[in-house]
Every structure is written in structure tokens, then in C-alpha cells.
Amino acid sequence: MMKALRAVFAATTALCAATAANATDLEVTHWWTSGGEAAAVAEFAKAFDATGHKWVDGAIAGSGGTARPIMISRITGGDPMGATQFNHGRQAEELVEAGLMRDLTDIAKEGNWAELVRPASLLDSCTLDGKIYCVPVNIHSPQWLWLNNSVYEDAGIPVPSNWDEFVAAAPKLQEKGIVPLAMGQQPWQTTLAFQVLMVALTGTDVFMKVFDQKDGELAAGPEVAKVFAAADAARQMAKDSNVQAWNDATNMVITGKAGGQIMGDWAQGEFQVAGQVAGKDYTCLPGLGVNEIIQTGGDAFYFPAVDDADITAAQGELAKVMISPETQVAFNLKKGSLPVRGDVDLAAANDCMRKGLDILAKGNIIPGTDQLMSADSNQQVNDLFVEFFNNPSMTAEDAQALFASIIGNAD
Ligand code: GAL
């Protein structure tokens, strides 16, 4: 009874506080429009509305590659939203350098973010010249293979426990008219698959020398040639996967039209919305079951600098709400990602999230390429892999030569 009364009192207090500070509508832009993503965003909206302000949803359909140019042109064009999603890293660096984004350093200091946020690289990615310009909201990792258990069981095959077993099982699925590897054609998806293969098959050292040190020679060498051979096998397994959006590819796995998908932990949100249980209905293999390493990329929210005290106050409230322990748990459980702070109770975490938390605790992590390379260099890599996965006449050798050139000239 007392707990309920305390909750009512807290909510009333917050409401009064916001009312006193002029409850404000705040437009928030993002690209989270799949079932699982929308369920996760709803947790942010609910928490923000509870402060007395109002979340005005500015979802932009398509993927980040579609949404970011729209977000950037609105900010540079003088029609800013109240807050917007970007990935951790360098996507917003030109906006920050141009002085168009709000400095959150005071809020970060008040909230002790430097002590709470882990790994520290997330906050480093928000920081320019010692000032903090974004609130990190999750750690998402692309390095997962998602498998529909019944597809393999019905085919009389043990559910694969690693990449090699997954590849070996492919012909039997193809005989049954099942696509071994579901793959959407949004540009970032084929790059994601390649990067996941690289980390899984060559480990952290090669990945960081290529994407962080931009070692074009290594990118042209035999270690990376192994990854292109695996990518060649992947495009063979994905050739009948004729969908665009990543979550349509995930749905092929959920409905048994495909055996598996290489996709980030956000695919979990789709399995959850479909009522499927990790470990029972589907299997998740971090690092493709080969090298359990995960990237600590993810999502952060930035706030355009505006000359409006009510908007500025509401922006501060939203930043605080997004990183609060309760909202971190509610949002990340629905999103399938990991919280940016370690002091939260994740008793409700499922089998896959626990695997991710274990890998994070062991420190088997690497940054996302959005944190290592400029948006332009990342786009060039994206364009290469769209071509490679869609043009069978492009050989693995040709693709590797182009990749090495992009990496050697990347910034
Ligand atoms: C990423 C985003 C993830 C996931 C994915 C697919 O950029 O950070 O959280 O939503 O796009 O939309």
C-alpha cells in the first residue's frame, strides 16, 4: 500500500514540477518503426509523458540511412526537432562542430554519467572538446546469428552451434525450399553481415587494424580474403531472400521461411513481439558461435540548440529520463539491446540478453565502425557490399580489392 502511495506521490510531484516548468510538447525524431522498435520507443514516450511534458513522435520510416539525411537537413535548414536519434559515434560530428547541438555537460555532471556509463567509449563518442552532446541510450551489437530451431529440427538437423555448422546445413534447407540465410537489401545490412563475419572469423585485432587504423594492406591480405570467401558463401545462401527491410528478413526466420539471419540484437524485439521464446523457439549465437565478441555501438539522442527556454528545459528532462535506471531497463528489454549503465536490475533479461551481458562483463568488446570511421567512409563500404551481394559477377577477389582501396583512403 505504502509503495503504491509513494508511486502516486512521485508521479504527482513530477507532474506538478513539469506543470510549474511549463509542460512542453517535444518532437523526437528516430527511425525505429518495426514492431519491436516501436514497442521500445513507447517506453521512452511513456516515461517522458510521466514527467508532465509530451513526447511528440517523429518516427521516420526506412532505416537510419534514410532518416539521418532528413534529420540533418532539418537541423541545418533551421527547422530543428526537439531531440533526435543518431548512432554512437561520428554521424553528428559536423552538426556539433557547427555549434548546432545542445551542450549537455551540466546534465551529465549532475547525473554522474562519467561514473555510470559503461563502456566509457559510449560517452567518449558523445564528447567533443571536453563537452558532452548526446545521451547514450543503449549498447546494440550486430554480432548475432538468429536461428529458427524448428526449421532445423523438422529437417532432421541439429540446430547449428556455429557458422560452419550453419553453412553445412544450408543445402538440406535449400532442398526443402527454405532460404538458409535471410538478408534484406537496405545498404547497411550487407555491410553488417560482412563486419560480423570479419570479427567472428578473424577476431578483434584484424577488425581494429582494418577499421580503426585503416590498414589497406591488411584489408587486401589473406586474413581478410577468408572473410570475403565466407561473404561469398553468405550471398549464395541469401540469394532467394527477396526482402528489403531487416525486420522482413527477421520475419522470414520467425515464420520458418528461412533458417537464420545475421542481424543485430534488435532482431530480438521482433521475436518478442511474435511471442517467441529465446532458447526454446529460437537460438541466438553471439559472434556466430565462433568468436564471442560484440560491438558496443548503439544509439544516442542529440538535442538541437534552440532559443526557447521551455524546449530547452524539456530537452534536459528527456535526457535525464532516457538514462534513468527504470527507463533503461524498460526500453532495453523491449529493444533487445543492453543498458548503458551497470547499476540496473535485469532480472527479466532473457537467454540472449544474458549472453550479451556476459560478453560485456568479460570485456570482449570492440567499438562500432560508426565510432571508428567517418559517415562518408562507412557509406562507401555500404555501397560496395550492396553491389557484392547483388551482383554475382563481382568476384570475392574484385570486392576485396575495392574494399582495400576504400579502407586505405578512409578517414
Ligand atoms: C540501427 C539502430 C538499431 C536498429 C537498426 C535497425 O541503426 O541503431 O537500434 O534499430 O538500426 O533499424
Describe the fold and architecture.
With 411 residues, the protein is α/β, with parallel strands linked by helices. The protein has helices spanning 2-20, 35-49, 64-76, 93-97, 105-110, 113-116, 121-124, 149-154, 163-175, 187-202, 204-211, 216-219, 222-238, 246-254, 267-273, 309-322, 325-335, 351-362, 369-372, 375-390, 396-408; strands at residues 25-30, 54-59, 83-87, 127-128, 131-132, 134-136, 144-148, 179-181, 258-262, 282-286, 294-295, 299-302, 365-366. The chain is 53% helix and 12% strand. Helix 2 (35-49) links the parallel strand 1 and strand 2 (54-59). Helix 2 packs across helix 15 and helix 13 (222-238) crosses helix 21. The radius of gyration is 22 Å and the shape is globular. Bound molecules: beta-D-galactopyranose (GAL). Beta-D-galactopyranose binds at residues 31-32, 37, 63-64, 87, 140, 246, 266, 299.
Low-pLDDT ranges = none
Q: What fraction strand?
A: 5-15%
CATH class of the largest domain: Alpha Beta
CATH architecture of the largest domain: 3-Layer(aba) Sandwich
- Number of DSSP-assigned strands: 13
Termini distance?
A: 58 Å
How large is the count of helical segments?
21
Mean pLDDT: 93
Based on secondary structure, the structural category is: alpha/beta
Q: What Rg, in angstroms, do the CA atoms define?
A: 22 Å
* Distinct small molecules: beta-D-galactopyranose
Helix fraction? Answer: 40-55%
Which sequence of strands runs across the widest sheet?
A: 2-1-3-12-6
Q: Within the CATH hierarchy, at the fold level, what is the topology of the largest domain? A: D-Maltodextrin-Binding Protein, domain 2
Number of domains: 2
Major β-sheet annotation: 5 strands, mixed
| CA-based shape | globular
Tell me the name of the CATH homologous superfamily of the largest domain. Answer: Periplasmic binding protein-like II
